[in-house]
Amino acid sequence: MTARMDECFAALANEGRPALVTYFMGGDPDYAASLDIMKALPQAGADVIELGMPFSDPMADGPAIQAAGLRALKGGQTLAKTLQMARDFRESDAKTPIVMMGYYNPIYIYGVDRFLDDAVAAGVDGLIVVDLPPEMDEELCIPALKKGINFIRLATPTTDDKRLPTVLNNTSGFVYYVSMTGITGSALPDTNKVGAAVARIKGHTALPVCVGFGVKTEEQARAIGALADGVVVGTAIVNAIADSLDENGASGAGTTAGVRALVQSLASGVRSARLAAAE
Amino acid sequence: MNEPLKPNSFRAGPDEEGRFGIFGGRFVAETLMPLILDLQDHWDRAKDDPEYQAELADLNTHYTGRPSPLYFAERLTEELGGAKIYFKRDELNHTGSHKINNCVGQILLAKRMKRTRIIAETGAGQHGVAAATVAARFGLPCVVYMGATDVERQAPNVFRMKLLGAEVIPVTAGNGTLKDAMNEALRDWVTNVENTYYLIGTAAGPHPYPEMVRDFQSIIGREAKEQLQEREGRLPDMLVAAVGGGSNAIGLFHPFLDDDSVEIVGVEAGGKGLDTMEHCASLTAGKPGVLHGNRTYLLQDDDGQIEEGHSISAGLDYPGIGPEHSWLKDKGRVEYVSIMDQEALEAFQRLTRVEGIIPALEPSHALAEVIKRAPTMGKDKIIVMNLCGRGDKDVFTAAKHLGVEL
Fold first, then answer.
1. Within a domain: residue B8?
2. Are residues B206 and B252 in the same domain?
3. Which of A16, A256, B52, B318 could be B46's S-S partner, Cβ–Cβ 3.0 to 4.6 Å?
4. Distance, in angstroms, between A181 CA and closest chain B CA?
């Protein structure tokens, strides 16, 4: 597997704090603005970047991420350009792990082998493909692992103890616990339940467990970060981008600044999470 | 259903992973995976359970009104001057289409699974009406997702669903048609996994839906086979059915797939023509991809983004197709062709006048193909066409296209 991901989580473990995993949609609202946002994420304190691959029919995403995908597609984004974005980012950042996240069809049409080769060349460290459960591992997961790319799996509240080993088999990098059933961007779940779920997953794996879906503020990042190895923030970032666009959907000076401010506050949340846990 | 399968049978699929060759499968988010497996477990047990089968048979007979007649279209046959034309009249079913066959089967399954809430997607509204109907019959709340465009062009069915107590939620994403409604229904299911049963309307989606829906719809073909045997003492020479998602077609075709002498034709919506962007011919003009839980032929661009289909008929307006049809196409067992809006509209009017039957615009596509083929076949040949829906719902659309103000 790529060393970047494991090194990242090892360093964070030494630091004694959870990771801040930030999601944004590649190409939203256009390539240049989106690359600028991507570069700002680690500067603002993000530890891992999830680079969204837009898809016309994102069945497991809420309205915010659906709209971001449509904006990106309208702005001319393609899978080839999303790979290019990772490559461009790597020119100035050799350290931050990149996880490409999206749906299978664009990858299938691009060609699985060609995609994986290009992803490796671009410096991509992991993949999250929402509509490829373990039952479909031969499609992309196994070929990705063979090329040294992590395949990060989602575990959900519906993933019971009987199913967890199936989900964790072939998972690498980290486990992404989706803290509630439902689409992305829904309300924040009960923290007690999240803590219990993380403990349950940790009973089955030594991999870091990052928790996502619902975190919007510094306080929430701190609260969830106290319970997990990482906090994933997506919809809040995508909303910050959407809010900064003008009436024609174009980005402005405030776009990257808005994302930067949000990520800085989230970063300060995860950096004080363990103190919060100790109190 | 009970005939032994031949070696190399076309009727043996899907395999345990839900695949028909490379098609089908279970391409869903992890949240749904335990539900899909649970559904499969219940379905596997139900289909071999005599009690379930008896309940299903009882509803089919006394609620739906099966068997539906196999009708010899004497005047149309005479006018076309070729093959004898029979209609399998599933438009006479309760709720006016074949969709009810699937809904009674699935609602009984939902009941066995102790689900307390039904959701469905609908295009033309025929499936939405059928789902709302069985939900009313079993006292369960029902939410139907329907593209906003379809809500507008299928107003009578929207009202029918509401009368039946269903909540109809218009979906404005995308073009506001069936694909968008299906996305929204899947989102609902992901959110409400604990109590909700997703009653999919066509033989597509993640395994086991394609198999399950096909099995419920295969009653069409089984009856037709028996009825034609009684009438003519033999198999038909040709089967013709319209294909949107493909449930009525697979229902008619499946029991005949291993009867080599039977030529089988599926008719897709050619919209304004395959050389335009406005059609729904996924099999004749699309390529394999992954959407809504299965691999199948899809209308999509070079980047794998799904394109919107177009058809005069809302029920055919889907950029995908059931995975078994994709497999049958690649195997060459079924021939898939397309019929344009205008041809379907002409066939719609012709049947109304010649046989006194107002067909839905969906089977009007199949009919247009029959009108092309029958005259080229001998008078000793027999065509069976699935007349899968009645046209009452389409009179407003037809009037608009014919320039009549109601």
1. no
2. no
3. B52
4. 5
Assigned domain for B12 exists: no
Q: Are residues B367 and B261 in the same domain?
A: yes
B266 with B128, same domain? no
Select from A153, A253, A244 the least CA-distant residue to A201: A153
Residue A177: CA count within 13 A, CB half-sphere: 30
Same domain, B205 and B317: no
Query: What whole-number distance in Å separates Cα of residue A257 and Cα of residue A243?
Result: 12
Give the CATH number for residue B256: 3.40.50.1100
Residue B1 inside a domain? The answer is no
How far is residue B132's CA from residue B146's CA, in Å, rounded to a whole number?
13
Select the highest-mean-pLDDT range: A261-275, B178-192, B360-374: B360-374
Q: Which of B27, B30, B305 sits opposite A55 (nearest CB)?
A: B305
pLDDT digits (tens, 9 = 90+) for A64-78: 999 999 999 999 999
Confidence of residue A158 (pLDDT cuts 50, 70, 90): confident
Whether residues B206 and B247 share a domain: the answer is no
What domains are defined for chain A?
Answer: 3-278 (3.20.20.70)
From B26, B192, B193, residue closest to A136, measured CB to CB:
B26
B290-302 as b/e, with b when 16 or more CB fall inside 10 Å? Answer: bbbbbbbbbbbee
Mark out chain B residues that contact chain A at CB-CB < 8 A: 17, 25-35, 173-174, 179, 183, 186-187, 190-194, 287, 289-293, 295, 298, 300, 302-307
What is the mean predicted confidence (pLDDT) over B217-221? 98
Chain A CB contacts of B187 under 8 Å are 59-62, 183
What pLDDT digit, counting tens, does each position of B264-322 carry? Answer: 999 999 999 888 888 889 999 999 999 999 999 999 999 999 998 888 887 788 889 99
CB–CB of A108 and B304 under 8 A? yes
* B191 neighbourhood in chain A, CB within 8 Å: 181-183, 186
The pLDDT assigned to A239 comes to 96
Q: Is residue B303 part of a domain?
A: yes
Cβ neighbours of B305 in A, within 8 Å: 55-56, 73, 106
One domain, residues B90 and B156: no
Kindly tell me if the per-residue pLDDT of B3 is higher than 90. no
Among B194, B213, B232, where does a domain finish? B213
Asked whether residue B170 falls in the same domain as residue B302, the answer is no
Secondary structure (H, E, C), B104-121: HHHHHHHHHCCCCEEEEE
CB pairs under 8 A between A and B: 115
Q: What is the pLDDT of residues B207-216, one digit of tens each?
A: 999 999 999 9
As beta bridge partners, residue A19 has A230
Residue range A95-109: mean pLDDT, rounded? 98
Beta bridge partners of B336: B266
Q: What is the mean pLDDT of residues A104-127?
A: 98
| Residues spanned by the domain of B355 | 66-96+218-401
Residue with tokens 């066959």: B101
- ipTM metric: 0.94
Q: B84 and B163 in one domain? A: no
Chosen from A53, A59, A108 to mutate, greatest number of chain B CBs within 10 A: A59
Contact flag B30-A158 (C-beta cutoff 8 Å): yes
CA quadruple A248, A249, A253, A254: dihedral positive or negative?
positive
Q: Please, are residues A121 and A147 in contact by the beta-carbon 8 Å criterion?
A: no
| Domain finish residue from B213, B242, B276 | B213
